[in-house]
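We emphasize that the prediction below concerns an isolated chain of 164 residues; any contacts that depend on oligomerization or on bound cofactors are therefore not represented. The input was used exactly as deposited, without trimming of termini.
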Amino acid sequence: MPGRLAVALAIIVFLAVLAGLGAISGNLTFFATNGHPEPTAEARYRKVISRDFGTLEPLNAGLDACNIGGTRQGCYAASNRMIDALNSLLRDLNTTYVPSRYVDGNDAVRHAVQLLLDGFHSRNSGLAANDNASFVRGNDELKQGNSDLSRAWRHFPADARPVP
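Result of the prediction step, given as a token string:
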């Protein structure tokens, strides 16, 4: 047992000497921020988010057709337009490099967008089949997806958070 302790201590001393000589270096900020700043990649990612969410904004107005006084066909068509835009957003996120500090936020956004897609599909399924349970389930999924999306932005670093 004393031999193992001596070996362990020797390894610790060796690593301490290497660190002191600069052979081992690191930045604790990397661990605290869950990555390192990548200004160019982060700007590119923010541009994609801004552009894609910008296309969603005008589509939201069309979703009024799903409220009281709207039409079934109008709601179905507006939901399909939103499905197309959300699929485009996911495709863009799939083909855009995700900077290391954005990984958690990107995962949270993707999860929320998938919930929104599920909600629009369920709601349209309910409309097409005259199935109120599917329609209501879709609305519940949409509510959860919107809630998750609003929380997703907190997973990005505060100093470089994308603005949808």
